[in-house]
Amino acid sequence: MTQVTVKELAQVVATPVERLLQQMREAGLPHTSAEQVVTDVEKQALLAHLKSSHGAKAEEPRKITLQRKTTSTLRVAGSKTISVEVRKKKTFVKRSPEEIEAEQKREAEERRAEEEAVRLKAEAEARERAEAEARRQAEAVKSGADASLVAAVTAEPVIAEVPVVDAAAERKKEEVRRQEKARSDEDERRDRKHAQHRPSLKEKEKAPAPRVAPRSTDEESDGFRRGGRGGKAKLKKRNQHGFQNPTGPIVREVAIGETITVSELAQQMAVKGAEIVKFMFKMGTPVTINQVLDQETAQLVAEEFGHKVKLVSDNALEEQLAESLKFEGESFHRAPVVTVMGHVDHGKTSLLDYIRRAKVASGEAGGITQHIGAYHVETDRGMVTFLDTPGHAAFTQMRARGAKATDIVILVVAADDGVMPQTQEAVQHAKAAGVPIVVAVNKMDKPEANPDNIKNGLAALDVIPEEWGGDAPFVPVSAKAGTGIDELLEAVLLQAEVLELKATPSAPGRGVVVESRLDKGRGPVATVLVQDGTLRQGDMVLVGVNYGRVRAMLDENGKSIKEAGPSIPVEILGLDGTPDAGDEMMVVADEKKAREVALFRQGKFREVKLARAHAGKLENIFETMGQEEKKTLNIVLKSDVRGSLEALQGSLSGLGNDEVQVRVVGGGVGGITESDANLALASNAVLFGFNVRADAGARKIVEAEGLDMRYYNVIYDIIEDVKKALTGMLGSDVRENILGIAEVRDVFRSPKFGAVAGCMVVEGVVYRNRPIRVLREDVVIFEGELESLRRFKDDVAEVRNGMECGIGVKSYNDVKVGDKIEVFEKVQVARSL
Ligand code: GDP
């Protein structure tokens, strides 16, 4: 688009029409209305004016230099996270608000001007390149015989223009011709259209109208096609117009990621989407403009159109995003996020409700109508945020998705009951996640309460009370009477101090989804825990595979709020779908980026699932843990009775050697539950059920995530399977077999092969295509491969014992009589425990 109206230009540069008109007037241009056409000359005049008017700068304000260290976690390959520590120095410049505003405006304008300049430069370059190409073409064809040589060195599609009789070239030629025709038709149409708007046609001719990419008029492309016959003459003729149009297709670098839509591909190749659709149709694959092509197909199309293809790595988009989200600012202490876990009926809900009722800063009593799955409380010593979702779901689901939302676990144990299966499970989950535990010994109001029993029970699970020299605080409480709650919160805050939790409130918001639902009236509603930075109403957010602008934000009391800082849970409205618990939320700069990544993730979703399904299988687990020092097979083991569980745990843990080991990350008596499945998912473990089955919830996760779950009723079978898996993890040894030996009896010099050894095969068989070693007095002096193997004058694949042959060895010319040439093969031998 080289000729636009003022209105269109205003849109392009994102400036109000009035302002643009004003700027144009200042630049001395005659435009007065939005409908008038702006030529390129005029655009340049405007550009020059804008540039010159931004010359003067305000004097340098005061500077502050800060040094910062930020730590963040980067999510890679599904559920793995790496923490990244960035130390940087940053200079802040203090300015008044007016200055900042003026600065921003100026920057925006400068950016626009720069973009325009870059575009103009690119166009000029494109013209130049095309011109050079045409000249080369003309010369190439003129010198007749050299044509094919030129074709060979020209990596660009113009080779199709060289008269080489070749079916493929012919086809390509046809294709280029067709494209050009389409382009020039299109050009002509546009030209006609524009002519109607333009004040004078003459002006157009004078204007150095630079055109985008491979556009050319019919006439020009004709000249180009005829190459040597008319190329030069035509060139000359065109020169008379005082400007040059591209004469050959411009080779662009087309970046293709994992997937790309037809329209995106078209945009990158600067052709109309319809052309690709047409092309694909001809190839027998009907597609639509919005259809997503896989990388291979897109590459084929781009190459067929004569462009260079740059394959973008799987995660380039995500990496780019992570890069763009880097932020430095002062970090402050943030409130701990707590999950309450424990056995059913031990008082989790009662405890959460009590704290909520007693502590949540809600104006009116009973104002809590909506249960949002997370809330925060203010205490004298600081704030604590609770994730309040049923069961252990909040914790395990999120962890299974690689999100670490919880800083501290409150383990509720009823003093009248003791350590129960889910207590144990909670301990396993917390330990697997490396989250400190604060034990709430509940129901202390009951006469039969026996806190010592609980201390003993938990100590057996390696949760050692502080007073016994361990690191787990045990706080006696009563969720019913409300006693001990302050002490419990205090203990939590004390643990938090040790953890040194930090966040940077000035950064763009980042967080994690606690839960989400589809509300009939309000659409998708997601409860998000802000973990770092500040989330504001109006922010564009990317949440898992969803995105959207935060239309409204509500706190835990259903009150509308404008912003939420670190460790604050909020409900957000405005997403395009309901994300999953554990999905990461981040504020991104613009909708385009958000949509791009969301779409990419949606496409990726299936693959990730498949990849995970692959990685989670017992046979494949070892593949995923190449770098670890000692490879570990993680197992979640559920059994019908304690006896068999202990027997199995004992024998499984005993398997392995100093390279591989088994770790039972979770185990217990009873059926396989959702929580077990999540634990297996989070720790990349296989699920074993011994005489027990999985419930529906667990099966759903196993299926959705492609976990490996196996049922057994014979202990021996489990042990055999695990042994096999461990053997697989050991990998294999490479062993060498000597296949044949040939003795050098004579050395010939051949102009073609260099030194050729006349040999006698004295052992086994000498093969042409196997690696060899040369031995001189039984010492290896060379290792490589054969260049040639001949018997008499014939090339042969192998020569047997007792026969003579001629052997040429690649890059080894110092063969001597008496050397031995040893032919060998490498075989992989599986290792066993
Ligand atoms: P959850 O299943 O862990 O969420 O347990 P609940 O909070 O639903 O509590 C189960 C039962 O224990 C309820 O009947 C509660 O009233 C009761 N309960 C909870 N905490 C206490 C407590 O501190 N003292 C007494 N006496 N009962 C309690």
From TrEMBL:
> Where does the signal sequence lie?
none
Write out the ranges of the annotated region (G-domain): 336-484
InterPro entries to which the protein is assigned, alphabetical: DNA-bd_dom_put_sf (IPR009061), EF-G-like_DII (IPR053905), IF2_assoc_dom_bac (IPR013575), IF2_II (IPR044145), IF2_N (IPR006847), P-loop_NTPase (IPR027417), Small_GTP-bd (IPR005225), T_Tr_GTP-bd_dom (IPR000795)
Which residue ranges does the record assign to the Tr-type G domain?
Answer: 333-502
Q: Which residues bind GTP per the record?
A: 342-349, 388-392, 442-445
Major localization class: cytoplasm
Renumbered to this chain, the Basic residues biased-composition regions fall at: 226-240
- GO cellular component labels: cytosol
Q: Which UniProt keywords apply?
A: Cytoplasm, GTP-binding, Initiation factor, Nucleotide-binding, Protein biosynthesis
- Record field: compositional bias (Basic and acidic residues): 95-131, 170-190, 216-225
Tell me the superkingdom of the source.
Bacteria
Task: Please give the Gene Ontology molecular function terms for this protein.
Answer: GTP binding; GTPase activity; translation initiation factor activity
CDD domains the UniProt entry points to:
IF2_eIF5B (cd01887), IF2_mtIF2_II (cd03702), mtIF2_IVc (cd03692)
Indicate where this protein resides in the cell.
Cytoplasm
Record region (Disordered)? 94-131, 170-248
- Stored NCBIfam families: IF-2, small_GTP
Its family remark reads: Belongs to the TRAFAC class translation factor GTPase superfamily. Classic translation factor GTPase family. IF-2 subfamily.
Q: What does this protein do?
A: One of the essential components for the initiation of protein synthesis. Protects formylmethionyl-tRNA from spontaneous hydrolysis and promotes its binding to the 30S ribosomal subunits. Also involved in the hydrolysis of GTP during the formation of the 70S ribosomal complex.
* Name of the protein in its database record: Translation initiation factor IF-2
